[in-house]
Amino acid sequence: MDLNMALMRATFKLDQRQDDGATTVGTGWLVRLPGADGHLALVTASHVLDRMKQEQASIHWRRMDADGRWHREPAPIRIRDGVGTPLWHRHVDRDIAAIAIDPPAHTHDWAIGFDQLADDEALKSYDVQPGDEMLALGYPRGLSANEIGFPILRAGRVASYPLWPSADFPTFLMDFAVFAGNSGGPVYMSDRARKRVGARDFHEAQFVAGLLAQQVVLTDERLEIGIVLHAAFIRQCLLGLAVKLGDQSV
Asked: Domains, the chain, ranges and CATH?
């Protein structure tokens, strides 16, 4: 399946009403954990879950019925235990979180494969450079694309250099406006005709490049620039979660 459609299906809105009446909103997406056990995880930005202080958040699942009609089906997801301890796995250094989840059966096949998360070698192979277009999915200000709850697709260009190694440059910039609710959403490339380094022919480039962490703000002024954490760190976070879950094949 085309990565645009795959991620559109795999991405969901998260929200939680706080004691002060405000609602915290973020974006999460399903990824299949590495290993043989077939576990799934919901990936988002750590600060999204940090700001959700209640034991349960809401995730807005979607379902297509036998007549081909879509339905939005919000449901609770437990993110903290009874004393408030987080149930998600947090990357040791980066604003990335992954929580093991058993979603509705019809959504299992919508999860993105672990191998679709780009590492440094993938970025080098496709010669990703400033000016390249990437896409992002999310829920700006909690807004969905429609009443069914699909995310909103945005496009922007890579706005910083260099992009690797990710150990030295853990984030890169994207030239688009970011709003509350976008945090945690996938940033990806879907190019049907891209030439690999050293190749003669064109190939599809479809991979998740990272996770939208936040926007650039300078002296209270929004610069309409997004900060993206490399997918290499999402891979690390998911590997850590798989080990925590006891998958011996990782």
From this structure: 3-114+236-244 (2.40.10), 116-231 (2.40.10.10)
